[in-house]
Design a protein that fits this description.
Number of domains: 1
Helix content: 40-55%
Radius of gyration: 23 Å
Number of helices: 17
Order of helices and strands: HEHHEEHEHEEEHEEHHEHHHHHHHHH
Amino acid sequence: MNAVQLQKSVRDYAESIGIDKIGFTTAAPFRELKNRLKRQQELGYQSGFEEKDLDKRTEPALLLDQAESIIAIAVAYPSKMADSPRGKKGERRGIFCRASWGTDYHTVLREKLRLLEGFILEHAPAARVRSMVDTGELSDRAVAERAGIGWSAKNCSIITPEFGSYVYLGEMITNIPFAPDVPMEDECGDCTLCLDVCPTGALIQGGQLNAQRCIAFLTQTKTPIPEEFRTRIGNRLYGCDTCQTVCPKNKGKHNLHQQAFQPDPELAKPLLQPILSLSNREFKEKFGHVSGSWRGKNPIQRNAIISLAHFKDESAVPELIVMLDKDPRPVIRGTIAWALGQIGVDEGFAAIKEALLKEEDLDVRAELEKATDSRIEKV
């Protein structure tokens, strides 16, 4: 089987195993991307989760000897949830972003790439391959853009005509010289909705994101969330979909066909208060199979506290007071201090005053003092 025949067979096989889009591009360096990444580093706009070696991020030949081509894949995920539960007073709910609904996409896409690798090696035993999803060195979006999967939009997502931006991306480097597909034309036009509505102003300009201000990044950190962002997080427990939900190109894109990503409504929009008391084991049992669990329970619990403050949920105050007194984690105690100040009931302020008598962590003390000051300002 020659390369042309193999390429067609790979396309057909990809469709048969549930890959929604597949594209091919060369393994040439991503020179323009390298310049953009350098600028992002200089400006301090990167999240810190990225591969730090820019050569590895932009030169596929460093990742696979004799690299010739890159196969890009996209798998769509749903934008709608059937029977979405509604929160109510005393039973408030948080939300995980759509990219964390259903089974962890890393697991699903890696399995599809594993099957694709096996198919290629069966028909071309001398082939060499290396696959990655999200956590690899290459930029998934840059590969997908060049392989014609979609265009790189102003909200820094890849938008496909078929599925909008609700797609997971992965890629495979190979030494087979597949014919490259043609990149798509940018169809964002003059639209700036995503920039206009970003809750924290993280989208600096079309195609440029300051990850340090992005809610999707902030909800994954393990340190205290800067105070300027807390009231803008709302009830988000993990991630943020705002720049996708406002995009006109996503209108009507529901993508309900991938069974692995169908959400469990009670996990995608869980009750907030029960999250506060989860042990590590309980958290893993409940949320361990979703991508939003990858940083562990601490960030999710911190975000749940911020969400309860967003709702000014007075029913949570007794449990928050107990945690303020007994929780060993300074980040949690500091966040609770702020949250009690936001909820603003006398019981909470009394607990803050009592906590100040014994709190030794300087950062937590600062949060307690600010919460006390906020009461004075309200009066």
